[in-house]
Automatic annotation (TrEMBL):
Residues 1-20 form the signal peptide. Its main location: secreted. InterPro entries: TSP3_bac (IPR059100). It is found in: Secreted. Residues 80-104 are annotated as: Disordered. This is Thrombospondin type 3 repeat-containing protein.
Length: 256
């Protein structure tokens, strides 16, 4: 799997002009601390935007910044008997008990940067561009004018499949919340930012979120036109999450 650099991205993404730098911000911080670029699976169970693993949770609690690495360096987040700092130095995954310095596994393979569900949604695509979706104050203000409240907590990673060196759509993994419990959804769009799919990625805490008919209602909608019309609270939670995720895509990729 090939990941193109930021210079090539600037040329390719003619219709998506406002993307940030080419690798997720926390991955860049990890590289600064460890000397190498991790996959998103250091902090997430299945790529950027999915549920945080044990290391990701502790990194978040510690502040999600460079100082946080020092705060959790001597902890053993994944419970494999090896400290986080030792695992990072050995290029094993501090968030995966199965990955140890003696047997790090394939977590650093380039393919690991793209969650498998996102890859499966775009069969045959071999070239990907993972991009930060870091909201600026202008982005948040633009979203608010369109009726959607966003914040820095909505920062995410956008996965862009490239076909013939051009963007063919987007993939985004994001959280929805129901009765204080998070579950995770996957949304894909075409290159015009019309929704092609919304599906459940992880819903262990809210199993009733699986199989809802509401997911089919999003197909074909523009990401900035999602409405909240459901009467059932759980379906409303899904619609709200999709609306927020759609607006994140819109303000980041269309420069609203």
């Amino acid at each position: 799997m090939k990941i193109i650099n930021a210079v090539a991205a600037a040329t390719l993404l003619l219709s998506l002009p406002t993307l940030a730098t080419a690798m997720p911000a926390y991955a860049r911080a990890y590289k600064q601390e460890s000397g190498y670029m991790p996959s998103c699976n250091a902090c997430h169970t299945d790529g950027g935007g999915s549920k945080l693993d044990s290391f990701g949770e502790e990194f978040k609690v510690a502040g999600k910044n460079m100082a946080a690495f020092g705060k959790i360096a001597n902890k053993d987040s994944d419970g494999d008997g090896i400290s986080n700092s030792a695992e990072m130095q050995a290029k094993s995954n501090p968030g995966d008990k199965k990955s140890t310095p003696k047997n790090p596994g394939n977590w650093l393979d380039i393919a690991s940067l793209i969650p498998r569900e996102v890859r499966h949604a775009f069969p045959g695509v071999l070239t990907w561009l993972p991009q930060d979706a870091l909201l600026t104050k202008a982005d948040i203000a633009a979203a608010k004018k369109m009726g959607v409240e966003l914040s820095a907590d909505d920062n995410n990673t956008i996965y862009i499949p490239l076909v013939d060196r051009r963007p063919a759509g987007t993939g985004l993994i994001f959280a929805a919340n129901y009765q204080g419990k998070d579950f995770f959804l996957l949304m894909t769009t075409d290159k015009k930012l019309n929704i092609s799919r919304v599906s459940v990625l992880h819903a262990d805490k809210v199993p009733s979120a699986k199989g809802l008919k509401v997911y089919d209602q999003f197909v074909g909608q523009a990401v900035n036109k999602v409405s909240i019309s459901a009467k059932a609270p759980l379906e409303q939670a899904v619609q709200l999450a999709v609306k927020r995720a759609g607006m994140l895509l819109y303000v980041r990729l269309r420069g609203a």
